[in-house]
Amino acid sequence: MSRSLKECNNCIQQFESHFPHCPYCGQKAGDQLTLNVLFNNTISNYFSVDARFFKSFIPLMIKPGHLPKQFISGRRLMYLHPAQMYLFVSIVFFFLFSFVSRKQVEGFDSAIKKDIEQSHSFRDSIKKAAEVKKMNEYVYEPKSESESPIIINNKFIDSVTKDKPNKSNEIFNTPFNEMEIDSMIVAGASDEEIYRKLGMKADDGYFTKRMYKQILKFFKTKSGGSILQAFLDSIPLAMFILLPIFAFILKLFYFRKGRFVHHLVFSFYFFAFLFSVFSLLVIANLIWKNFPGWIMTLTMFSTFFYLFLGVKQLYGGSYIRSFIKSSAISFLFLSLVLPFALFIMGLMAFLFY
């Protein structure tokens, strides 16, 4: 009695249909691509990066759209899982980027401290000029015939003291004076007193009060590096959130070219490519101190052409149509989604640094 045979999507070998898995490669028989399949065991298998990574990395870099097309078609054991590839490459990137970000945070803190020192120096000069102004007009009498009298003109002092008043700011339309806040902190005033001076009211909402608390924290520490560090630390999570949004944009432009999970596969591989490129740029900057900016610019522009060729390979269509759609996808993502994400990241970094 003959038994029916079926073909494995991964290794293209035929086997008897009653087998639940392919006896040649081990892939599940009749495996349909779903969200469960895409994410199943991804975290637990993350560190089991084997030779498939090296087999997948070259096609990822030089053959746009090849890996997602192979994975969607059913060849899921020949190459590294898309989510696994993305996680591994992103971890490598953020490890390398930490060396650069540390220098940026230190430089940011140094710049703020220098600005504060210059501000204090200028305030001292204003204070001295104001004291001299009270003397009306002071004439320095020469001690010898070789010296000339020195006259301090009140008009000059007026121009300095009027044009450069004590620096003040505004929070939620409430003006405050930085010198007064600094003085209250030095004098040991309570936080409640300083909050009132800043303009915080008892009936303000949680968000507003949180903003005032962070502002006072900044005045006390005079450190903007911690805010920048909090912003940089939020990038991995933000990128992971932006990834499905990018897949949704692909779905809008290629609505009839597969389910959402198919576009998510492409997004995983595309973002893995982006992190690979960024990692190479970081390495180049760490090794080559004066790394040419034009090479970096050219490399960044190349990511668009990768997207263009990738959608052409995966979704088909003419080159002109693929170019127009990839341009629209890039514009929509870079002009609307990414700026909004950066704003949210900056706001969250300030609120929770």
Structure notes:
With 353 residues, the chain is mainly α. The protein folds into two domains: 1-31, no CATH class; 33-124 and 168-353, no CATH class. 66% of the residues lie in helices and 5% in strands. The strands form three sheets. Strands 1-2 form a two-stranded antiparallel ribbon. The protein has a two-stranded antiparallel ribbon with strand order 3-4. The chain has a two-stranded antiparallel sheet with strand order 5-6. A hairpin with a 6-residue loop joins strand 1 (5-7) and strand 2 (14-16). Helix 11 (260-287) runs antiparallel to helix 12. It is elongated, with a radius of gyration of 31 Å.
Relevant terms:
membrane, two-stranded antiparallel sheet, transmembrane, mainly alpha, 353 residues
Secondary structure elements and pairings:
Layout: E1 5-7, E2 14-16, H1 35-39, H2 51-62, H3 66-73, H4 82-133, E3 139-140, E4 150-151, H5 154-163, E5 168-171, E6 174-177, H6 178-186, H7 191-198, H8 206-221, H9 225-233, H10 235-253, H11 260-287, H12 293-315, H13 319-352
Antiparallel strand pairs: 1-2, 3-4, 5-6
- Major sheet summary line: 2 strands, antiparallel
Strand order of the largest sheet: 1-2
| Overall structural domain count | 2
Helix run count: 13
Number of strands: 6
What is the radius of gyration computed over CA atoms, rounded to a whole number of angstroms? 31 Å
Oligomer: single chain
> How much helical structure, as a percent, in the residues?
55-70%
Transmembrane segments: 79-100, 235-254, 266-288, 294-311, 331-352
Keywords: Membrane, Transmembrane, Transmembrane helix
InterPro entries: DUF3667
Protein name: DUF3667 domain-containing protein
